[in-house]
Write a structure and sequence with these properties.
Strand order of the largest sheet: 2-1-5-4-3
Number of helices: 9
Order of helices and strands: HEEHHEEEHHHHEHEEHEE
Shape: flat
Low-confidence stretches: none
Helix content: 40-55%
Number of strands: 10
Mean pLDDT: 83
Radius of gyration: 37 Å
Structural class: alpha+beta
Distance between the termini: 35 Å
Length: 336
């Protein structure tokens, strides 16, 4: 873990780096790509001998820093190369990063940094001058265009506003509907594939045909909405109340969502409990849209192998004219 968190060499891989346990002064790690040595030292004394660090003052200062958990830096020739030796305290002095880097490598990196800074400054200066020039040209063009538009600004503004309202309504309506269309279409194509595969099994053929029919009817309702130009122009949705059965609605939703969940290795559990009336009056297409959107999002944001629950629970009635239902979509994915 420590080795993976350290850089893969620095100062053009000329620096040497070990990890040392402060108490035992033993070296426990030499990261890959650091320095020229292929064989590591065993401890601090070995490091001193190998690098000819015999100055008593330096050793005493290093010993003091190790005792107090402080950093230590000193210059020393390593094999005839002027180098900066370092001992960096880690975890309050329990460990140290020990090594050296040639002074020339530090200076070379400093020169590279200075060159990079100079290039950045020159580029920024050139960009600033270019921006000033473009701004000046743009301002002249804006003044000229503003004078040309003064005569008919009001008429253009009104026409633009009307066009934006119409375009926004159409775009929003069609964007929402295109998302709703893809889900049942995927179900139709999926069950058609299964139908061709199991054509010799009458039971499966009837089951797949029933689910294709449910998805197709839902798709047809959505297409009828798109073809209703008045709804597209207004950007509004009108509720169409009619009688429907709760069982058919649940089957239709299950037929569309179940293949999506199966493709991701998810389990979809459907539960209907405590509902007093099978036949209801409402806008089946809109309810379908809401449930399919919620469940398709659950499939999308639940990881592979996850679980999704779809429940319709009958609650105590507040009025004899209305069925009181709670519809739940639950998953073990992230988010809402």
């Amino acid at each position: 873990t420590i080795e993976s968190s350290l850089p893969d060499g620095f100062y053009n891989k000329q620096a040497l780096l070990y990890m040392m346990d402060a108490e035992s002064e033993r070296f426990i790690l030499k990261p890959k790509g650091m320095g020229k040595r292929s064989a590591g030292h065993l401890n601090l004394d070995d490091y001193y001998r190998a690098n000819d660090i015999v100055d008593a003052g330096i050793r005493a200062e290093v010993a003091r820093c190790l005792e107090q958990g402080e950093n230590a830096l000193f210059y020393h020739d390593i094999r005839g190369v002027d180098s900066l030796n370092y001992m960096w305290s880690v975890n309050d002095g329990t460990s140290y990063l020990v090594g050296y880097v040639p002074v020339e490598a530090i200076q070379q990196e400093g020169r590279s940094v200075n060159q990079s800074i100079l290039i950045v400054v020159l580029v920024m200066l050139a960009a600033f001058l270019l921006c000033c020039t473009l701004y000046y040209i743009n301002q002249r063009q804006q003044v000229r265009l503003r004078r040309e538009r003064e005569v008919h600004t009001r008429q253009l503004a009104e026409a633009l506003h009307a066009a934006q309202v119409a375009s926004s309504s159409k775009t929003t309506f069609l964007s929402n509907m295109s998302h709703d269309i893809r889900t049942p279409m995927n179900a139709v194509l999926g069950f058609t594939t299964l139908l061709a595969k199991d054509a010799d099994d009458p039971a499966k053929v009837r089951e797949y045909t029933k689910k294709i029919m449910a998805s197709g009817q839902h798709l047809l309702s959505l297409i009828n909405d798109i073809l209703d130009v008045s709804k597209i122009e207004s950007g509004k949705v009108v509720l169409n109340l009619s009688e429907f059965t709760l069982g058919d609605l649940v089957s239709s939703v299950d037929a569309i969502i179940q293949p999506m969940a199966a493709a991701r290795g998810q389990t979809l559990d459907v539960e209907v409990d405590g509902v007093r009336h099978e036949y209801l009056i409402g806008d089946e297409t809109r309810i379908n849209q809401i449930l399919i959107n919620l469940l398709s999002n659950a499939v999308k944001y639940t990881p592979e192998g996850g679980s999704i629950w779809f429940r319709i629970i009958g609650l105590s009635q507040r009025s004899s004219q209305y069925e009181h239902l709670r519809i739940e979509v639950e998953d073990n994915g992230y988010g809402m």
